[in-house]
Amino acid sequence: MSTLGLFTPPVVQNEPLRHYAPGSPERAGLQSVLTKMQQSLPFEVPCIVNGKPVKSSSTATQVIPHDHAKHLCTYHEADESLLNSAISDALAAKKEWESMPWNDRAAIFLKAAELVSGKYRYEIMAATMLGQGKNAWQAEIDAAAELVDFLRFGVHYVEEIYKTQPPRNAAGVWNRTEYRPLEGFVFAVTPFNFTAIGGNLCFVPAILGNVVVWKPSPGAVYANYITHKIFLEAGVPPSVIQFLPCTNDTAPSFVAKALSHPSFAGLHFTGSTHVFRSLYKEIAIRTGEGKYKGYPRVVGETGGKNWHLVHESAEVKNAVNQSVRAAFEYQGQKCSALSRVYVSSYLWNKQGGFKDLLLAEIKKIKVGSPIEWENFMGPVAGKPAYTKSLSYIQKAKDEGGEILCGGTGDDSKGYYVQPTVILTKDPKSLTMREEIFGPVLTIYVYEDTDFEKTLDLIDETSEYGLTGSIFTSTRSVLIHASHRLINAAGNIYYNEKCTGAVVGQQPFGGSRASGTCDKAGSGSIFGRFLSARSVKENFVGLEGEGVDGGWGYPSNLV
Ligand SMILES: NC(=O)c1ccc[n+]([C@@H]2O[C@H](COP(=O)([O-])OP(=O)(O)OC[C@H]3O[C@@H](n4cnc5c(N)ncnc54)[C@H](O)[C@@H]3O)[C@@H](O)[C@H]2O)c1
Ligand SMILES: N[C@@H](CCC=O)C(=O)O
Questions:
Q1: Domain Aldehyde dehydrogenase, which positions (predicted)?
Q2: Of the ligands numbered here, which is closest to the C-alpha atom of 245?
């Protein structure tokens, strides 16, 4: 194909957020799609291989967490033989996909961004609200805005990578870098809690010319299915992203099968730490045994035990409001969710201080169906998440923790857990250490004279290092604490909550047990799914270097 120009993609901006205020056109638009979707329940979701629906003999359901008697969809489970044929067909499609001119691959995903932003915005949001328990605000920032941002900014980042070329050329030589996709297929294993993450984990490798086998979460199948439909409609070739759902019961053997394929070249995972560790181990063993063609790339973003440090100099109203959002928005089911607070004893105890304000604000939170507009909080993901939250609350009580509010749940219709605050005197108690992934916040009040020890506690209490925030109005405190906590969070915030990273603004990801810190929403993640080839082209031979235009070194002359 001839080159007819060096094209520059459109300038990239964050997708403007819609607010869904009463009487707004967006509220009416979303409501109408939600109503229609509820009237059409349940949907049927097949596997999609080579762009075609494949039904299997084994089906499962995605339950609606706010009304568990109903389900959003029945999905067909992929089995291992379908997995094998999907991998073979994806590999067969790879040559043509990686050879497609960059501007065409870019155009396909820019078109997908427009489809999410416009035609499918309310449908993908409604699927996320019904299936994953998000209210309109949370669905907007995830399924609409973040997914669009991942796609548009991704095109920009890949453009930047392709433009990065060796800075020097010797006389008569042209050096170039070619950014090859990986040799084999990339396996994307994605979580329930962010529709955007499901799409992004496939998009990142795919836009670089890789082919992808996607195992979505059983808790997000329908929204992920819509994402896949959008990719196909935008022009992603049929076999480039294969959509293969399965249940969590069959996931261990299904995933192991994919990882044992000799052409497995990369894992793009987001989910819990223990699952990632088990996959990492499997890959490491097989790599050590020389079972793969190369050394697979392993990218995983996992759990967190995220913290707010509230210094005595903090502006208390801001610290409280940000803490309420960070701990309880989306029921504490963001990997970034706040789950431990270290607060100055002075600020906690003073009248109208952190404690008084926090409890007063939490009283105002409405918990209920995410499709009713007034509810700030909805249900947790399912029965296991419900039981887990309540069992941690019980364990905290058994350890001597004081429940300041909440502490109860109701699963008669949906899986509701009240926003819960536990006050602990033991900074290393269980709920200060382990990820709960529910609306459960534990608070440790430190003596103001113990600030240094508190920094050590934050750093050493949990194995994670995902997000954290420092609230203070004293610059020297901020500088000191931030430096001391250098490895305690991959995303640190100053006087701002620890959730809500925005693509293109705060690259997202943590280290320690929280993941490989490859930073979703930034350019660096794309480098993980590329294998660069250095090219040196010589226009002049050894002219000017070899003796008499031959091969001899001038330094050999005597
Ligand atoms: N750091 C981040 O960017 C980030 C973002 C979102 C979620 N998370 C983390 O994800 C977790 C919540 O998501 P989740 O509940 O979907 O996680 P999960 O680990 O249960 O599931 C993630 C994926 O792994 C699959 N899976 C589950 N068990 C498996 C097994 N034994 N073997 C192979 N595959 C298996 C699931 O089907 C799903 O596709 C939390 O720990 C949260 O902190 C992290
Ligand atoms: N990137 C999101 C969290 C994603 C994980 O669940 C945030 O910053 O709140």
A1: 56-523
A2: 1
CA of 218 to the centre of ligand 1 (A): 10
- From the CA of 507, the nearest ligand is 2
Complex-level ipTM? 0.99
Domains of the chain, each with CATH number or no CATH: 25-167+174-302+515-536 (3.40.605.10), 307-494 (3.40.309.10)
Within the chain, how many helices (H) and strands (E) appear? 18, 23
Residue pair 468/514 in contact by the 8 Å Cβ criterion? no
Say what the pTM is: 0.98
Give the Å distance between the CA of 334 and the centre of ligand 2. Answer: 5
Ligand 2 atom with minimal separation from the 337 CA: 9
Q: Which residues are catalytic?
A: 301, 335
248 CB near ligand 1 (under 6 Å) = yes
Establish whether residue 492 lines the binding site of ligand 2, counting it when its CB lies within 6 angstroms of any ligand atom. no
Q: Give me ligand 2 centre to Cα 61, in Å.
A: 26
Ligand lying closest to the C-alpha of residue 300 = 1
Mention every residue, 6+ apart, whose C-beta is less than 8 A from residue 80: 253, 254, 257
Integer Cα distance of 269 and 520 in angstroms: 11
**Average pLDDT for runs of 10 along the chain of length 558:** 91 98 98 98 98 97 98 98 98 98 98 98 99 99 99 98 98 97 98 99 99 98 99 99 98 98 98 98 98 98 98 98 99 98 98 98 98 98 98 98 98 98 98 98 98 98 98 98 98 98 98 98 98 98 87 94
Which has the closest alpha carbon to 340: 447, 452, 462, 450? 462
Say which amino acid occupies 254. F
Distance of CA 552 from the midpoint of ligand 2 (Å) = 61
Query: DSSP characters for 55-118?
Result: --S-EEEEE-TTSTTSEEEEEEPP-HHHHHHHHHHHHHHHHHHHHS-HHHHHHHHHHHHHHHHT
Give me the amino acid identity at 121.
R
What are the C-alpha distances in Å from 61 to residues 179, 206, 246, 338? 41, 28, 10, 31
